[in-house]
Design goal:
The chain is of the alpha/beta class. The protein has three domains: about 120 residues, Helicase, Ruva Protein, domain 3, CATH 1.10.8; about 40 residues, no CATH class; about 140 residues, CofD-like domains (Rossmann fold, 3-Layer(aba) Sandwich), CATH 3.40.50.10680. Helix content is about 40%, strand content about 20%. The chain contains 13 helices and 14 strands. The strands form four sheets. The chain has a seven-stranded parallel β-sheet, with helices on both faces. It has a three-stranded antiparallel β-sheet with strand order 7-6-8. Strands 3-4 form a two-stranded antiparallel ribbon. Strand 11 and strand 12 form a beta hairpin. Helix 1 packs across helix 13 and helix 2 packs parallel to helix 5. It is globular and about 65 Å long. Bound molecules: the ligand O=c1nc2n(C[C@H](O)[C@H](O)[C@H](O)CO)c3cc(O)ccc3cc-2c(=O)[nH]1. The ligand O=c1nc2n(C[C@H](O)[C@H](O)[C@H](O)CO)c3cc(O)ccc3cc-2c(=O)[nH]1 binds next to helix 2 and helix 6. Its cofactor is Mg(2+). This is Phosphoenolpyruvate transferase. Pathway: Cofactor biosynthesis; coenzyme F420 biosynthesis. It comes from Streptomyces chromofuscus. Belongs to the CofD family.
Length: about 325
């Protein structure tokens, strides 16, 4: 079975680990979000690609869900001693090596897709990991930073997604989320081919705006998925009207979508999604999602461990089969 998965960071990576366990013989292609990418200290950092690569390759820091296990931060401390930041982004020594190799290869003329393949030669994630595009796309967030005054004023600015997410911890209101460069970007080699050859396309419980939404913003990808003629099944990242992890509710508000399992399904829409899994606590949403033309089932959606993630993957594939034979 050929499975294409659109993935962000932690949620996507953990789901993929479950999927591999559920269907060990499947041929899995992962289209990774690169809107979170950031240039720091002259290096290109790809948090979501690395989170998938490290998680499936056995090198992830399990507690954090990002970055390397058994990490040290000497380089970051030395940079800080020179007054060179940012200090708010935790790049460890082992992780730095990945960014150095990536940046060196890009400088030598290799596209990001080829670099990612080379990095995966070491990690052997057991899936084909392709960035959504080789072109530069950076998600920016328009915010108003309060001036602290009683008039409720503040400075409106546009900041990098990582500054909004990591430094500000989404504590200021996001007014708009813009995947800068997406409109001009082309899908990376292999992306459209993988979708065209897929038997099923899955949207893990990743962020619908800044992860999956960014991938779908690359011209051609949404259309290829909608036209593939195979079941497209997603899993809700919202459980009981709150994100399972992260701050997806904050960016959903910025695009005018309420943080409920049903609203996220409607946001993707029946033109794209054929099936949607909601958590059992959201069983009441099933009717609304089905009324929107999307087949819906309520099953446990908390990825408490690898077995739970594998059960979710099996449910997603079962729903895909149901859609296919309907
Ligand atoms: O909350 C944090 N997330 C960090 N993340 C996670 C990441 O910024 C976001 O969670 C994702 O971009 C959202 O998908 C990192 C990921 C990397 O690959 C490398 C370094 C970091 C550093 C941080 C960090 O300092 N704090």
């Amino acid at each position: 079975m050929r499975i294409v998965v659109l993935a962000g960071g932690i949620g996507g990576a953990r789901f993929l680990r479950g999927l591999k366990r559920a269907v060990p013989d499947a041929d899995i292609t992962v289209i990774g979000n690169t809107g979170d990418d950031i240039h720091l200290f002259g290096l290109k950092v790809c948090p979501d690609l690395d989170t998938v690569m490290y998680t499936l390759g056995g090198g992830i820091n399990e507690e954090q869900g990002w970055g390397r296990a058994d990490e040290t931060f000497h380089l970051k401390e030395e940079l800080a001693a020179y007054g060179v930041g940012p200090e708010w982004f935790g790049l460890g020594d082992r992780d730095f090596a990945t960014h150095i190799v990536r940046t060196q290869m890009i400088g030598a003329g290799y596209p990001l897709s080829a670099v990612t393949e080379a990095l995966c030669d070491r990690w052997q994630p057991g899936v084909r990991l392709i960035p959504m595009t080789d072109d530069r796309v950076e998600t920016h967030v328009a915010v108003t930073v309060p001036d602290g005054g009683s008039a409720g004023g503040g400075e409106r600015k546009v900041i990098h997604f990582q500054e909004y997410w990591v430094r500000l911890r989404a504590s200021v209101r996001a007014e708009a989320v813009v995947p800068v460069g997406a409109e001009q970007a082309k899908p990376a080699p292999g992306v459209l081919e993988a979708v065209a050859q897929a038997d099923v396309v899955l949207f893990p419980p990743s962020n619908p705006v800044v992860s999956i939404g960014t991938i779908l913003a690359v011209p051609g990808i949404r259309e290829a998925i909608a036209d593939a003629g195979v079941p497209v099944v997603g899993l809700s990242p919202i459980v009981g009207n709150a994100p399972v992890r992260g701050m997806a509710d904050k960016v959903l508000a910025a695009v005018g979508v309420e943080a409920t399992a049903a609203a996220v399904a409607e946001h993707y829409g029946s033109g794209l999604l054929d099936g949607w899994l909601v958590d059992t606590v959201d069983a009441g949403a099933v009717e609304r999602v089905e009324a929107a033309g999307i087949r819906c089932r309520a099953v446990p959606l908390l990825m408490t461990d690898e077995d739970a993630a594998a059960r979710m993957a099996r449910e997603a594939l079962a729903l895909a089969q149901e859609v296919r034979t309907a």
